[in-house]
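Archive entry: two folds, one per protein. Generate the first.
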Amino acid sequence: MFFLLSKVLDFALLPTVWLVALLIAALVARPPRQRRWLVAALVLTLLSTNPFLANELLLAWEQPPVALAALPRHADAAVLLTGITSVNKSPHDRVYLGPGADRLTNALWLYRAGRVRRIIISGGSGTVKTAAHTEASDLATLLRLAGVPNSAILLEDQSRNTRENALFTQKLVVARPELDTLILVTSAFHQRRAMGCFAKVGLHPISFPAGYRSADRRLSPDAWLVPSPEAMVNISLLVHEITGWLTYKVLGYL
């Protein structure tokens, strides 16, 4: 039930949904109020497509990068959270990577640099319908193609959200006493919620954010004045993540 409700809440809070709702309200309203709805739609459009504002919000929410030198010399495993592949795209003879693929490359980098001995991939499918295969299996395929041996890859392919990522990974780790020091690799915007969920189940991994959506601060006129559809995408992402964080906090998952 929580899984379905979270999907509905995500949809209801999207800036694009609000924009359409305001435009519909302007169409059906009488002239005295029509102008107000149109002004509200214009303000929402200007704010949600402003690249400077979107980047500032990302910089404030995303967890800062962690230097490789700040990590332990040899951790037992990197925990790689999924959410970066499309499991419903056919044909199903390949892996379709989406935004946030730095999660995969950063986990691979840690392994290749000798900073972790294994990679735990955590994630089943975040879709409502049954998927042809899991995201964890997709990323395991890519890691094997990159030369990571099967013996160094552990799969947790049942979870559908961050809460379950933590719960099922905890069960996997408990069954393997040799897995003590963990490094959690997920997108920088998602790291805050993920670390909280893992701490709640008794795991205290080292944070290693990846997949940054923010860029270095720019004060050029185009950053202020030129609307960007990517800005609306990033603000929608932040709305989703902050709503998720607050919901998890209320439910006691953090």
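Generate the second and append.
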Amino acid sequence: MQKHQEIDGNILSYLKFQTPKENRGNIIIFFLIFLDLLGILPLLSEPFSYGYFLAGIIPIIFIHLWAIIYILDPYKYEHSYYLFFGVYGIINTYVYFLLIQKLLDAHILEGNHTVIFVIGSILFLALIIAMQFGNMKMFKTGTYKKLQEKGNNIQISPIIAASGIGYIISQLIITFIYDYSFRMLIYVFLFGLLSILTAYFSTYVHRYFYIKKHKEIVKQVYPEFGLPKSKRNQKYL
């Protein structure tokens, strides 16, 4: 990244991108591990629920089909990758929400399904929204800049930390109320923990629109941003 002292340091910290090649690697790793291995397989496991499987498999297929263009040409579609990855974060978090609901649905007392689903839906939406506010707060307060200056790649703010912890605790409370299985508590805790990471990925949607709004600055910092691979300097591929 070129140095431009006339550009605000907070903006530069927010526009610190990975290479398109690294973007493609992210898709392969996160899809295989977080979505396919930890998402699809549990949806197929016992006790199998056709309703939860159908609710999860449709967005999963959609995001896999969308991912193809970034696997084939991550250079040309470098900008829209951020929108794609943000939507992926929402979908992956949604799949984990379904898995938690499936676990609870298989063990809770009959008649409480609707109540649990409504509470879970509210928690899911609250987590996604809290991540957006946390991301914007970190950007405006210069937290990203400070973390990068310290060489710290772990991007955490009080809002994000509180929302993540609150989400896990809320899910554990629901589990404890309706089921006393220690194994269930572990499963819900793990899926809740993974949900914090994937929910943070949803903040890439904001980054996409921020890039779109500040194209001139992006081009100043990354002159080759969004260009096909054939038109880029081979030294920086």
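Annotation attached to the second fold: Residues 153-157 have pLDDT under 50 and may be disordered. The two ends are 13 Å apart (CA to CA).
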